[in-house]
Amino acid sequence: MTNQLTLTWTEAGVRQTQMIQNVQPSKNPGTVRLGRDPAKCDIVFSDSSVSGLHVEIFFNHELQQYAVRNLRASNPPLVDGKILASGEATLKSDSRIHLGKVHIEVVEVTEMQVAAPLTVLLPALPVQISSPATQPSTYGLQCPKCSRVSPYAQLSAGCPWCGTSLAAAVSVVLSP
Q1: CA distance linking residue 53 with residue 71, whole number of Å
Q2: Which residue of 46, 48, 171, 176 sits 20 to 30 Å from the alpha carbon of 13, by its own alpha carbon?
Q3: Do residues 106 and 91 touch, judged by C-beta distance below 8 A?
Q4: Alpha carbon distance 63, 25 (integer Å)
Q5: Residue 43's pLDDT is what?
Q6: DSSP secondary structure letter of residue 154
Q7: Where on the phi/psi map is residue 161: left (φ > 0), alpha (ψ -120 to 50), or beta?
Q8: Euclidean distance between the first and final Cα of the chain, in Å?
Q9: Tens of pLDDT along the chain (176 residues)?
């Protein structure tokens, strides 16, 4: 079972959408960190009102809910209209997170059953992932913003075309 949280926000006049899953690679395993510092954060903002390392979002397995944790005491976020000076707050559909001047909305929280085989659709290119594999597969990461596919080596560097963090990118099988 995979749980997914979908976030949206507008930065520099551009609407952004990012999906977070409870099982995905990140710079701090088990969490997705948000802030301005691309070396420490999985979702990076350019607005100077956002701290370098501001908050982290994680899935609380005990409560079976997503939560946000404040990482910056001197610049606390607002979560659903309340200052989160310390600790964590539960996230649900329609929750709002304010990191400085950046307003993030939780669009939805979903629980997905992952079934095999899984077909990943790239623009005009269906890729079938099946098991067992008859030959070694090469995997890539599909950028959540521009949909271009990068090798796994780009995970920490971000998308080479648009610079978006690939922490929440979809893993796809590249055709030989």
Answers
A1: 7
A2: 171
A3: yes
A4: 22
A5: 94
A6: G
A7: alpha
A8: 30
A9: 678 899 999 988 889 999 888 777 788 888 999 999 999 999 999 999 999 999 999 998 888 899 999 998 899 999 999 999 988 999 999 999 999 999 999 999 887 654 444 445 545 544 444 444 444 556 677 777 877 777 766 566 677 777 777 777 776 666 55
Q: If DSSP codes are grouped into helix, strand and coil, which group holds residue 36?
A: coil
pLDDT of residue 80: 96
CB environment 25-60: b (16+ within 10 A), e (fewer): bbbeeebbbbbbebeebbbbbeeeebbebbbbbbbe
Q: Are strands 96-99 and 78-79 parallel, antiparallel or unpaired?
A: antiparallel
Rg over alpha carbons for the chain, rounded to the nearest Å, is 17
Say if residue 88 is exposed, middle or buried (CB neighbours under 10 Å; 0-12, 13-18, 19+). middle
Q: What is the dihedral of CA 95, 105, 2, 124, to 10 degrees?
A: 160
Extract the runs of DSSP E, i.e. beta strands, from 2-63.
2-11, 14-21, 31-35, 43-44, 55-60
Res 138: pLDDT: 65
Cβ neighbors of 156 (< 8 A, separation 6 or more) are: 27
- Residue type for position 70: N
